[in-house]
């Protein structure tokens, strides 16, 4: 069962969104394994790793956090994920 769950709508192709999120996670020192429909991720933080899965359905990405440091709240993680998703699709509009 996920510790935190988030859902975001996006106006670009799933392939492009996933490519951009993959890039952001790898640039943060993490790992990303998936495609335009589903996958998993690992992001290191100074207080411990964040791990989880995602599923894309239509123009919505569902992101589940399955492991996180106790000190990080779901709201903190959700804010950062929202920034990553928003940045991923807004960079395409520039």
Describe this structure in a few short sentences.
The chain is an alpha+beta fold.
Provide a descriptive summary of the structure in words.
- It contains two helices and five strands.
- The protein starts with a strand and ends with a helix.
- The protein is of the alpha+beta class and 94 residues long.
- A hairpin with a 6-residue loop joins strand 3 and strand 4.
- The protein is globular and about 35 Å long.
Describe the structure using short key phrases.
single chain; 5-stranded antiparallel beta sheet; 94 residues
Largest sheet: 5 strands, antiparallel
The proportion of residues in beta strands is 25-35%
Q: Mean pLDDT score, rounded?
A: 88
Distance between the termini: 38 Å
Oligomer: single chain
Radius of gyration: 12 Å
Binned, the helix content reads: 25-40%
Query: Residue ranges: pLDDT <50 for 5 or more in a row?
Result: none
Structural class: alpha+beta
Number of strands: 5
Written as H for each helix and E for each strand, in order along the chain, the element string is EHEEEEH
Number of helices: 2
Q: What global shape is seen?
A: globular
Widest sheet, order of strands: 1-5-4-3-2
């Amino acid at each position: 069962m996920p510790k935190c769950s988030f859902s975001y709508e996006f106006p670009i192709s799933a392939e492009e969104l996933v490519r951009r999120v993959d890039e952001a996670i790898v640039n943060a020192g993490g790992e990303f394994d998936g495609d335009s429909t589903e996958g998993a991720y690992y992001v290191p933080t100074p207080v411990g790793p964040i791990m989880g899965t995602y599923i894309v359905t239509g123009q919505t990405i569902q992101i589940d956090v399955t492991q996180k440091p106790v000190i990080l709240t779901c709201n903190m993680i959700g804010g950062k994920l929202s920034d990553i998703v928003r940045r991923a699709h807004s960079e395409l509009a520039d």
